[in-house]
């Protein structure tokens, strides 16, 4: 069996520098988000953003949903992978953070593809209808199982769901003061689900790819 490389900060910088670069608009979105202070840790990493765009293109997604939009960085990445007539429904409870994203979506020419729905996603996820090709879940971690169960029936066969922060800073293994019970339960829940294939990637804080069979 092969070895898993330890991704140090230096190696991660190298990986980002040798992958799809952020353009000026995405760079400015990240900079404005970093100006928010501590909340900016919620941002998806640049290599995750590149992966989101690439996967969206690879599976020829036309209809996508994002749960947890924050300042719109991952939504920008997904929408850029969609065709001109593609649609991304974004669910988030916070009007202030998402209003930052709207400015950059306009500048990037993707605003017409994005349908932002402000409100508690516990409710709005149950109001989704139609078929989806791709879903990105990055909101409240203790609701991941419910998001998975709500979205899976709406996903087309071979459709893709992605869940962020599934390694919880590495705390899903070992003993820690802040035990990420929610992530442990979610990871165990999907691992034994025969309806899906699951791949956990050590990118960012852990990104799980879930393919519907
Ligand atoms: C980690 S951030 C999302 C980061 C974003 N995907 C990005 O890459 O920049 C989590 C977001 O989920 C939203 N959120 C948390 N709980 C929610 C809920 N119950 N309903 C809707 N949005 C929620 C927060 O408002 C926040 O914007």
From TrEMBL:
PROSITE patterns: SAM_OMT_I (PS51682). Keywords: Methyltransferase, S-adenosyl-L-methionine, Transferase. It comes from the Bacteria. One of its GO terms (molecular function) is O-methyltransferase activity. Signal peptide: none annotated. One of its GO terms (biological process) is methylation. Pfam families: Methyltransf_3 (PF01596). This is SAM-dependent methyltransferase. It comes from Kribbella pittospori.
